[in-house]
Structure formats: C-alpha cells, structure tokens
Records
---
Amino acid sequence: MQDIQSAKESQNIFKNIELTGEKFKQEFQELAVKAQMAMNSQMNTSKFEASYALSVGKKQRVQTIAEVKEIRNELWQESLKKANGNLNDASEIYEKLCAFP
C-alpha cells in the first residue's frame, strides 16, 4: 500500500517538475519575443535617426525634437489611461504605439 502511494507521490513530483519546466519555457519564449521586438525597435530608431541627421538641418531637428517629446508624452498618458495606471501594461501599450512599421 505504501509502495503504491510512494509511486504516486513520485509521479506527482516528476509531473510538477515537467509542468514547471514547461512554464519556464513559455515565459522564456515570451521574454525572447519582447527582447526581439525591443532590438528591432532600437535598430529602426537608429536607422531613422542616422538618415534624419544626414538629411535635415539642425534648426529643423531641434523643432522636431520638441514636437516628438510632446507626442511621446501624449502617447505615454494615453497608454497609462488604457492600462488603468498599470506601469507594466502601459509600457507594452506605449511600445506598440511608438513602434515603427
């Protein structure tokens, strides 16, 4: 009787280990997707900034920087509102709103 119970407990332990492993795999995949999105976003931003700096005069760039700051602030406020104040959710929403196509 104890052997059967011990065998069931062992099976449960191994099953829980497998479930935990699968959960970690899924979380890792989600993090990998987010990391890839962040890297792509940064590369696109760098490409844009380089081409913009090479083709637009300083006066226009200064004006654009002020406008971009204003727009980013508006997008962040919109993200916070959509996320009901949750900073993690707001960050994800903001990232999507700011992503280059």
---
Amino acid sequence: MCSSGVCYQISTPQLPWKHRITLRFATLLYNTSLRSDLTVNRRLLNFIDPKIPSNHDSTHSVSSSDLIVDTSRDLFLRIFTPTPTAALDESLPLLPIIFYFHGGGFVFGSADATSTDMAARRFAKKLCAVVISVNYRLAPEFRFPCQCDDGFDPLKFIDEMDDDSLLERVDLSRCFILGESAGGNLGHHVAVRASEYEFKRVKIIGFIASQPFFGGKERTESENRLCKQLPLTLDMTDWFWRAFLPAGEDRDHATANVNGPNGRDISGLENFPATLIFAGGLDLLIDRQKCYYERLKRMGKDVKLVVFSNAVHGYFGFADLPEYSLMIKEMRDFIAKN
C-alpha cells in the first residue's frame, strides 16, 4: 500500500523490449514534429497516427459511428457501441456512457486517429459501455479555452438530442468522464463545469483520470528526477504548455496548475463526481497527480488513487501489459460501484 492510495508492485521492473523500441521511435518522431517556433508538423503526425473512418460493422465486438456537433470547429463524436452477444444481451440493463478525451499534450491526437479509435474501442468492449470519443481542437492552432469548450459542449449536445436512436441502449443517468494525460486535465475541467450545469437527462456520476497532465512553475521532485524519462520528457511538457496556454500566461495558470495558488476551490461543488486517478511511478507527472488526489480529499470529494510503481507515462497504450489489465479491473469496479 502507498500512503496516498492503492499501489501495485508489478514483478517486471522494465517494459518489454518491443515496447521500449516503440516508445523511443515514437518519441523521436513526435519530438521532430514539434518546432521551435511553436508550430507543429501535422503531416508528420498524420503519418505517425493516421486517421481512419468509423465502422458501422462490428469490429472486435464493437461498432462505431460519427455524430457531428459543430462543423465550424470540426467538433464531432465517435460513438463506440458494444454489439449484443451472449454476454451482452439486449435484454440486459441499459449501458453506461463514457465521455472519452484522448491524450497528446493538447497538441496530438483526434477522435478518428488510429490509436484513439483502438483505445476507445477496447474501453467499450472491456467496460461494457457506450464510449463517446470527443474530437476537440488542438494547440497551438487553438489555445485554451477552446479545448474546454469542445469538451463540455458534447455533454449538452447529448442531453438535448431529439433523435435517441444512436443512444437507445444507454442510461443517461449513468455517465462517466474518462481522460488520459491531457484528456485527464480536460476531463477535470469538464467535470467542474458539468457540476454547475443543470442537465435535463445527462448525469455525470464518475470521473476517471489516467495519468492526468498537470503543471506548475515550481518543479516537483519527480519532474526533476524523471525529466528525461521516455516517452514524456520535461522539455516536451514545457512545449505543450507554451502552445496551449493563453499568450503571456505561465504554468501556474489555473488550467495547468489545478493544485496551485490559482487553482479553483471546488469544495462547494456538491455534484463533483466520484473520481478515480491512475498514476505511474516512472511518470514525471506523478507528484502532481498525487497532489491532485490529496487536494480532492481535502475538499471532501470521493476519490481513489491507484499507483502502478513501474509504469511509464502512457502505459495505457499497451493492452498486453499487466498494468493495463489491472487498470481495467479498477475501472470496472469503479463503474459498478457508482
């Protein structure tokens, strides 16, 4: 046990070679796409992680379809629905909804990127839930608060939908937010806004933050110790914040440093959902994630922290790792409990 939650000690201290090679190669390509003038080589990024269409036919027991929210900002939802099987019969209770926000430092990724599509599809199958993957705008072309607006508006869109045919098997009173890395940061701010909004049907009852991306001007011990740890280095996080935050703002901006002097006090938000946080012992962000856990606890929130002692940032991208299976088990238990 860790002093700040549940700690899993995995017997294998290092990633398998194939994953280490993948991470090293991917990190090299991603770093190459980040230019010193705070622009991004999108063509290279699209080569690394190409976009794929939705698939109405069942793939890995999950079908997908796209739903347009706002064409002017390319805001769309990719909806993943588990197909009925012997284990998931149409006569069973309605499925929960998971609003899913991909990671990528607010700079990489999209709902139709291959990696995001695969991740969301796995979640839909393994968690027996309808996963709604949100295609939010990216920095540096679009800075804060664009991402937060794009994250929250789909909740209102689903709440106000007249055509329920796409969501006929879901329970709108059992909605969860799931965010990975930058998506975990975004998920926090969407959860805060949702706590203050009066929905007609949608009810957010849980927030799952997997290695949420938080920052701050003062370096933490883990940031200094793990500053060169792949796949997320300190130089990369600094680049992401400069690209994402409003011009002239630093890492103590309330959006980046939710635990800092400008971070919002949410102790009065009675509807802030129960929260499950995942952290990795080899992730330079772990100290900030632990501080986030402690802050929510002090504010009287229902929160649990799970630490995988040997996990690097982005372990959730490797479904064959033992940490991934344990993460899915924790998520299932969390969803069943709420």
---
Amino acid sequence: MGSQYTNNLSQLKNLGLPAITNLAELASQMRLSVGLVQTLVFKSNEHYRVYFLDKKSGGEREIAQPSRAMKAAQSWILRKILYRLNSSQNSKGFEIGESILSNAAPHIGAHILLNIDLEDFFHSVPASHVYSIFHSIGYNKLISQKLTSLCIFKGRLPQGAPTSPKLSNLACQRLDSRIQGYAGSKGIMYTRYADDITLSAFNESKIRKAKPMIEKIVLDEGFSINHKKTKLCGTRKRKEVTGLIVSANGVGIGREEYRKMRAEIYTMLQSDPSKLAHINGWLAYIKSVDTTNYARLIKYIRTLKKIFPDSEVFNLIPAIKKN
C-alpha cells in the first residue's frame, strides 16, 4: 500500500498535478473551508439552478447552472487539473489552441463528408467515467470520488458546469482512438468538435462502407446518435463543418453568408442602426475564421462610407474606426 501511495504521488508530480490525498488538503488547495467543500461534495445536487432552453430542432435542453461556491470549486479543478491533461488529437472543441477553424481545416479538398451528431452529449458521460479519469491519473479512491462529486449532477455531466466540456473530451479518448484507428487505416480523416463528428475522404465508397462501423463504435462507447442530423455530402453538395464551408482549396464562411452580411451591413447603414452590435460581433467572428472574406467586407464598408458620408455609424465600427 505504501508503494502504491508513493507511485500515485509520483504520477501526479510527473503530470504537474496537485498532490492531494485527503479532503483537508483539497479544501486548502481550493482555498475553501473544509466544511464548505464537504457540503459541495455530499449535497452537490443542491448546488445547481436548473432551467431549460428550447432547441432549434425541437424539445428542450436542460441547463444546470452551478452555485457560486460550486463554480469556484469546479474552476479550480479545471485550471489545476483538467487543463493539464491532454485530450486526443482528434478533439477540436473546448481545447486551448483549437477552434472551429482547426476542426474544419483537415477536411479541405475532401470529395465526400459525413457529419454525425452525438445526442445529449454531456448527459451521456456517467459518473463512473469521470471517476475513472481522476483515478487513472494518480488520485486515490477517496479524492477521485470527491472530485467526481464536484463535477457531476444527478450522476452525469451537467451542461452548465465549467468542467463538463474538458471532461467530456477526456471521456471520449477511447471513442476517438477507436474511430481514428478504424478510419485512419482506410484513409479517412476524422475530427470531433464536442458532439459533432466529421469524417471525410476523397472516395465516396470509403465513407459509405465505413459509416455502419463508425456508428457501431459510437454506440459501443455509450453514446447515442441523433440520426436527424446525420449528413452525407457528396462532390456536388455544399460541405459544412461546424458552421464553416469547406471547399477544394480552403475553408471559410462561404458565399451565401458573405452575401447575407453585405446585405445586413447595407440595411444597417440605410435604415436600421440597431443591427450595429450584431454586425460588429459577426465581423469579429469572421476575422477569426475567414480573413479573405473579412478583408472583402471591410473594403465594402469603406466603399459605403463614401455613399453615406454623414453616417455616425462608421465611428462605431471598430474595424474601420481609425480610417
């Protein structure tokens, strides 16, 4: 037992993780009282406010918002433990240095694209998986149980907790490994952005033949598929990955979105200045994912500035404010 204890502490140290062996040490590291941490652990379900949001596809999405104290504990776990653990290379969502752009880019030039949506994603990760994550990195049973209790709500990952996105990625490591192992050997590219799985290839038959096995792996790993959102896009169809359009030689917002933005900018300047905040937000987003179309839109706005020289709105668009 002494040897195992030493090995666990050594493993935690090698990973750069806090060496915690009991509740008092955990509370001290979190800078919370032992009594408060005990309450958060043993009465965790009482520290959430639950509400529901309508889904675009119909139905409701449960949001469990942690209390201020619970969120403080979870934020510590995220910063000091979870962010120091590596997710799979296929995981592009909720990861430092990754984005919807890095999720879409590997699929540039593909002739066929398969999108699979994982249904009720966070809620599909049970407490047992979360416990396994903490225990596998070196925490003893007691601390693994405490950390798990601080991260789950009613036995599963809550949508609304800051720890859930990263934990969901860590819980998907075997899923990612199995899909990558199967798809990669067949020349199929695989990425996952949270609950959004994307596979692509140059050969349509490869994807069609692989689809049943990919779906079987997903089900084997305890996840469900939202078949209504499954999409298979061939050569002539528009290929969309996490909201971005993938073409033969690049990735961006696409012509349709670009034209829509031009029209909204013109409407704002001509008759509806209330759109300003919306447009500024979209310009910032487009700048981060599509520099070519961002430059085109800025050029268009500067052209409109000559048409509407007296408009004060231009002074409220950060992208051109200095010009």
